[in-house]
Amino acid sequence: MHSRSAEALRSALEGREQARPLLAVGAANALAARLAADGGFDALWVSGLEVSAAYGLPDANVLGPRDLADTVVAVTRVTDLPVIVDMDNAGGAAHIAERYADDLLRSGATALCIEDSAYPKCNSFAAHTSQRLAEQDLLCRQLEAIRKRAGHDVVLIARTEALVTGANLDVAMEHARAYAEAGADAVLIHSKDASGRQALDISRTWCLDLPLASVPTAFPQITADQLGEAGYRLCIYANHLSRAALAAMRGAIRHFGTAGTFTSSMGAPLAEVGDLLRIGEPGAVSCI
Hints:
Elements: H1 2-14, E1 22-26, H2 30-38, E2 43-46, H3 48-55, H4 65-76, E3 83-86, H5 94-107, E4 111-115, H6 136-150, E5 155-160, H7 169-181, E6 186-189, H8 197-205, E7 212-214, H9 224-230, E8 234-237, H10 240-259, H11 273-280
Parallel strand pairs: 1-2, 1-8, 2-3, 3-4, 4-5, 5-6, 6-7, 7-8
Helix pairs in contact: 2-4, 4-5, 5-6, 6-7
């Protein structure tokens, strides 16, 4: 099952004939996964930040492989979409990366994304601390260990944080080439340049025969179609559903504080009870 799913995703990523990139969206639970599938997304992204936030934990290598695997089990219960798991730096060692891969593939993951942030990691957008790069050779060894263990039953996405740490594009490309040689199926050069110019420079500079992925969190004004036209094969909207849910829950609580009851309003709409029931039981009907 895993090999067929990985083969299909790898083939879709490599498809040169379609300008539209594959679209993945963060899903930290089955509710988000069902909505993503209904919304026409191509894949799910199990985000380290979203899952950490759901557990009330910092995004700093506190999650273990089982925390992520439990999320994969939950989201695959309600949809057949391929699941890409954000492993961060996989514990900062090759043998730990193997353990992550084992647990995640057994739980139903199709693809694993592993990055070259130093252990312990910090979130790329954290203002209170700074991202540091691990040695380039470490991620190469982690990629090789996972590939040796899992073969081609997994799609491996190598993510470099070089630009986030202040390095230039030449350095980022050097890391990308090394990760391609170590067995990556796709590369993600992360950028938090709000103008989006850096992301477009990446695609113009790209010369490797591997699919290029983007996480356009910092530059939402650039559409998926524009990124596809620039050459990106995968766009990952990493944390948007959790952010939308957080904003909606705050709105509902504010409305309750004013009205003294939970009623659906323009600023704080509430889904029907039956809608919630149908996430786990599609044929369910509510009596209210």
